[in-house]
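Private note to self, pasted from the team thread so I don't lose it. Backbone tokens:
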């Protein structure tokens, strides 16, 4: 009996030693792989560190936020200590920028809209929380670096997921979601005279949409894509309406060439008589069936970085894609010299947790070379930024920021305003 017990203990000891040996070999191999050239972010991260999603680490610079400034005066600050992130959270390499915190917006906003006219940034609507929405406009003056001039929106106007564009005086507002949570869209359209603060109705869109790509091009108001009435299904429709000086010249919208890929939350920009549509996603949250408050429920989303262009030939052309997929950027852009600059957004979901991953980079699309580059980092990752550019300064306000340096999933809806001096290579 004693010998049998001894043999059993010896067998267990051998098993433990062998297992420990294999474990040690595995850890050494894992370390060598993580240190090898195969573990690089320059190829980005569509592969999400494909060989080992859970254990690979990457050392990247950290960023520290500035202290709040109740007077709204500029204050500088940036930190660069190292931090260790899972490869699935890796930001793309980009220069660190010196950010200054300005006067915060009167209210926090998510999925709001913004239009810049000269030195004024008009900031519209948006969620305050998932259960509350704003129905007014706030104005930021880049000359005084202060907020003021609040006024109300029409009661029938959508509160989020708006299509919006300006001709330099009149702001055209198209469709969008009416109410909080995941309520339905409205087909109503409006025009605002920014000099008189007067609103006028326009012909309604043929069918309502969420966050369609919207712009003015060759005397016509163009509305493309977005999500259909269920908030999830991508739309390919493209309509236009002749407008001039804040007035419609037609009673009905005209059907145009469909957009190659549908979906909401894209940048839509006209430069040098060319129409660009950038980034976006297919799919979105939907109202939970039977919910009396239209409670949002998750659905599968596909984020992409594709770029399309219309020119004289009136055929969609495919241009180089963004450095990584990016959505929630419909008002996150500015024209700087002959480049399109885009700040923040959302990218592909975390492959393990399936959580939304926010973007902390600033992208430049050079219209001379038709090439993308990374020109800097935001003070934190954030989606649905509202961006302006004035006398060399890039500004952004509002949106939903990340949970912290080591967790890029969304957390707090903000109203903060930040700026940085931005210099671009020609």
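Design output:
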């Amino acid at each position: 009996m004693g010998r049998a017990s001894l043999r059993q203990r010896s067998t267990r000891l051998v098993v433990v030693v062998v297992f420990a040996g294999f474990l040690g070999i595995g850890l050494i191999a894992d370390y060598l792989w993580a240190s090898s050239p195969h573990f690089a972010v320059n190829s980005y991260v569509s592969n999400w560190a494909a060989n080992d999603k859970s254990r690979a680490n990457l050392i990247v610079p950290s960023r520290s936020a500035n202290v709040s400034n109740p007077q709204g005066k500029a204050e500088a600050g940036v930190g660069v200590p190292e931090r260790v992130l899972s490869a699935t959270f890796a930001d793309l390499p980009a220069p660190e920028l010196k950010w200054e915190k300005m006067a915060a917006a009167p209210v926090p906003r998510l999925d709001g809209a913004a239009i810049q006219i000269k030195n004024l940034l008009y900031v519209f609507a948006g969620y305050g929380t998932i259960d509350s929405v704003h129905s007014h406009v706030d104005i930021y003056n880049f000359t005084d670096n202060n907020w003021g001039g609040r006024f109300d929106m029409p009661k029938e106007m959508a509160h989020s997921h708006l299509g919006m564009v300006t001709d330099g005086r009149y702001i055209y507002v198209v469709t969008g979601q009416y109410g909080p949570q995941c309520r339905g869209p409205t087909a109503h359209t409006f025009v605002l005279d920014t000099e008189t603060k007067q609103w006028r109705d326009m012909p309604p869109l043929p069918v309502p949409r969420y966050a369609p790509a919207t712009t003015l091009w060759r005397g016509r108001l163009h509305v493309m894509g977005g999500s259909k009435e269920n908030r999830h299904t991508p739309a390919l429709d493209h309509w236009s309406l002749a407008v001039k000086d804040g007035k419609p010249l037609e009673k009905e919208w005209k059907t145009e060439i469909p957009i190659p890929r549908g979906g909401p939350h894209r940048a839509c920009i006209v430069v040098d008589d060319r129409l660009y549509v950038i980034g976006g996603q297919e799919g979105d949250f939907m109202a939970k069936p039977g919910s009396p408050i239209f409670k949002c429920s998750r659905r599968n989303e596909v984020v992409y970085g594709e770029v399309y262009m219309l020119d004289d030939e009136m055929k969609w052309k495919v241009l180089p894609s963004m450095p990584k997929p990016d959505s929630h950027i419909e008002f996150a852009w500015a024209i700087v010299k002959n480049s399109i600059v885009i700040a923040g957004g959302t990218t592909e979901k975390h492959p393990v947790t399936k959580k939304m991953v926010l973007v902390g980079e600033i992208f430049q699309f050079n219209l001379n070379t038709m090439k993308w580059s990374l020109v800097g980092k935001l003070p934190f990752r954030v989606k649905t930024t509202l961006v302006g550019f004035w006398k060399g300064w890039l500004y952004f306000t509002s949106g939903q920021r990340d949970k912290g340096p080591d967790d890029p999933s969304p957390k707090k809806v903000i109203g903060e305003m930040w700026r940085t001096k931005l210099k671009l290579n020609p």
